[in-house]
Design brief:
- The chain is α/β, with parallel strands linked by helices.
- The chain has 3 domains: 3-222, HUPs (Rossmann fold), CATH 3.40.50.620; 248-316, Tyrosyl-Transfer RNA Synthetase (Orthogonal Bundle); 326-399, RNA-binding S4 domain (Structural Genomics Hypothetical 15.5 Kd Protein In mrcA-pckA Intergenic Region, Chain A), CATH 3.10.290.
- Helix content is 44%, strand content 14%.
- The protein has helices at residues 3-15, 24-37, 56-70, 101-107, 111-115, 130-133, 138-145, 150-153, 157-164, 171-187, 199-211, 248-256, 263-270, 283-299, 301-316, 341-348, 354-362, and strands at residues 20-22, 42-47, 74-79, 124-128, 191-195, 218-222, 326-328, 338-340, 366-368, 371-372, 379-381, 387-390, 394-399.
- A hairpin with a 2-residue loop joins strand 9 (366-368) and strand 10 (371-372).
- Helix 16 (341-348) packs across helix 17.
- The longest helix is centred in the middle third of the chain and has 17 residues, at 171-187.
Amino acid sequence: MSLEREVEQQLKVIEKSVETLLPREELARKLARSVNTGKPLRVKLGIDPSAPELTLGHAVVLRKLRQFQDLGHLAVLVVGDFTARIGDPSGRTKAREPLSPQAIAENMKTYREQAFRILDPARTEVRYNSEWLSQLTFADVLTLTAHYTVARMLEREDFANRFREGSPISLMEFLYPLAQAYDSVAVEADVELGGSDQHFNLLVGRDIQMAYGQEPQVILTMPLLLGTDGVRKMSKSWGNYIGIAEPPEEQFGKLMAIPDELMPQYFQLLTDLAWEDVANLHPKEAKKKLAWCIVAQLHGVEEADRAQAHFERVFEMEKPPEVLPDVRVGHLLDGEGQASLVELLVASGLVVSKSEARRLLAQGGIWLDGEKVPAHQDRVAVRPGMILRVGRRRFARLVL
């Protein structure tokens, strides 16, 4: 195969579903050099540990990073344990609350395991940016800041809006794009990936690399995945997320509940199937295919089959799951074999508090042996083997 043809084939894979690729001709040159020398490109993705769970929103860029790996390149996953102390101001209308070192350490405990559900560990270099950022002296920081101007920072839309509205912008927030850019210097990135909200930060990385005498990285941004509400981007903060490491049944059920209009984007960004190939199916069948593909990618084919069977048994045939947790409740019964439903719910672990139990009961969200419990009823007669259900997905079997 000719060099030109191989480069074009790689570009075709890389460009699929991409929102921005700049500059394309630079990437073509880097790819040609990689083919000629046999040296893989270093493709960087930064993730700040602002929450303990990676979501399907992260999966969008992780999948693109995996495509680079499949083409023979090296993924450089930078966990922003130091930049998380600043907080990414991207898309924010006010400053983030900085995370404590303890919260950061807790959040990133399982990042490696979660990311490797998609990435190839053999072609991944995992780095933590505290390795270099914590070593910078004040003189080093002054040198870094000298390479960028306030005017350039205010070209960034969210900063510009806040400045125009008189909303405070701390100098620490200005340091975030510079710190992320210095990450690219430290790992010598050839390419950096990110969501579309990272466009500005990635461009700063190009400038800072050139200031430090390096060849600038090519930037590649992916569309932001809408959350399960179909309104805002997927985020733990909004509660509209699906976690990469959530149990298969949870993932399958949440995906079956997304609005129909989200399916084209989810197929495009989270699977290898084209929406056109499934668009003629009944929406429920198309959504099952979507859910199966995503669960299979993250948990394997057998778990995807089990998750689909679970969904069909519980939500279509309206039967309890085949496997249920047993909860001992004999100590809650009075002399007549009755117990407080609120106490049963808390003891079962199906709710986290009595107040949540009372709220769900008032909303008609509690079933006992398939019968909805009236909102005004608290005490219920308990028999061994009764099935307690909360909402559509939470079940437990009561044993004495």
